[in-house]
Write a structure and sequence with these properties.
With about 260 residues, the chain is an alpha/beta fold. Helices cover about 45% and strands about 15% of the residues. α5 (about 90-95) packs antiparallel against α6 (about 105-115) and α11 crosses α12 (about 220-235). It starts with 12 loop residues before the first strand and ends in a 15-residue tail after the last helix.
C-alpha cells in the first residue's frame, strides 16, 4: 500500500486517535500528542464518536465484531488529512489490517484503504511526514527505550523516537542489549499465557536494570503498563513514561503507576 507524504500547506487538519488505554489510564499521553502536533503546525481535532480500534477482537479471531468496530472508526475519521495515534499497535491496526476486513465489499474496502493511507503512529508522523527534527523539551537523566513490536515491525518506528530524544536537553539515552525483544504484553497474549508473559517481562526488566537508566520510555501504553507493573513488583525505582510525554516537555508528571500529586 502506498503511503504518500503529506505535502499540502500547513496547518494540517489532523484527527487524534486517542486509544482506549490512553483514554482510560493515561490521558496525559493524549495531551502530549496534541501539544506536539500543534507545535508542528497542525490543527488537531479529537472526534467524539471514535471507539476502540478493534484489535482485541481481531487478535481473538472475532472478525465480525472487528468489522463492525472498524466501520464506526472509518465513519468517525472521515475527511481528515491524517489520523494520528500515540500507539504503534493501534496505528498498525488502522493502516495494515482494516482493508482486509472488507475484501468482500469493494466500496467499504476502498474506504478502509483511504483511512489506512491517512493513518500514522505519532512519532513517525512527526518525523517522516512533517519533517520534525527537534523538540523544545528538557528531561534531566538517563533513559532507555523499548521498541514495541507493532510500531517496530509493522510501521518501521525505530530511529524516529531516538532522533527526537537526541534533541531533548539534559537527556542521555542508554540502550538496552535487546530493545527490540517483546516485553510479553502482546494484548490478549498476556491474559492467555500469563506465565510466559511474566517470564518475558522479567527478562525485559533485567535488561532495563542493566542499562542504569532511571527512566523507561516506549511508544505503546500497553507495553509500558506491563513493564511498569513488573518493575514495581520487583521494587525497582525506574520511572516509566510514554515517549510523547518527554518529547512534549511533560516529564514532570507522575510516572506510570505513581499516585497523582495533590
Amino acid at each position: 500500500m502506498s503511503r504518500s507524504p503529506a505535502t499540502s500547506a500547513r496547518p494540517r487538519r489532523v484527527a487524534l486517535f486517542v486509544t482506549c488505554l490512553v483514554d482510560l489510564f493515561r490521558p496525559s499521553v493524549g495531551f502530549a500528542a496534541v501539544k506536539l502536533l500543534e507545535e508542528a503546525g497542525c490543527t488537531v481535532e479529537v472526534p467524539p464518536l471514535q471507539v476502540c480500534c478493534g484489535q482485541p477482537a481481531y487478535n481473538s479471531g472475532d472478525r465480525a465484531t472487528t468489522r463492525a468496530i472498524a466501520l464506526q472508526v472509518i465513519d468517525a475519521f472521515e475527511g481528515y488529512d491524517a489520523v494520528v495515534a500515540p500507539s504503534g499497535s493501534c496505528g498498525g491496526m488502522l493502516s495494515h489490517h482494516y482493508p482486509g476486513l472488507f475484501d468482500d465489499d469493494p466500496a467499504l474496502k476502498a474506504r478502509a484503504e483511504d483511512l489506512a493511507a491517512r493513518s500514522f503512529e505519532l512519532v513517525s508522523f512527526l518525523v517522516d511526514v512533517l519533517g520534525v527534527r527537534k523538540v523544545a523539551a528538557r528531561y534531566d537523566g538517563a533513559v532507555t527505550y523499548h521498541d514495541s513490536c507493532s510500531g517496530l515491525r509493522e510501521l518501521g518506528v525505530k530511529e524516529q523516537p531516538r532522533g527526537l530524544l537526541g534533541s531533548v536537553q539534559g537527556l542521555k539515552l542508554n540502550e538496552m542489549k535487546t530493545p527490540e525483544v517483546c516485553c510479553g504484553f502482546g494484548g490478549t497474549f498476556c491474559v492467555k499465557y500469563p506465565e510466559i508473559s511474566n517470564a518475558m517481562v522479567g527478562e525485559k526488566t533485567a535488561d532495563i536494570a542493566a542499562t542504569g537508566a532511571g527512566t523507561l520510555l516506549a511508544g505503546d501504553l500497553g507495553c509500558l503498563m506491563n513493564m511498569a507493573g513488573k518493575l514495581q513488583r520487583e521494587g525497582s525505582a525506574v520511572q516509566v513514561r510514554h515517549v510523547a510525554e518527554v518529547l512534549a516537555g511533560m516529564g514532570d508528571l507522575p510516572a506510570i503507576g505513581e499516585p497523582e500529586r495533590s
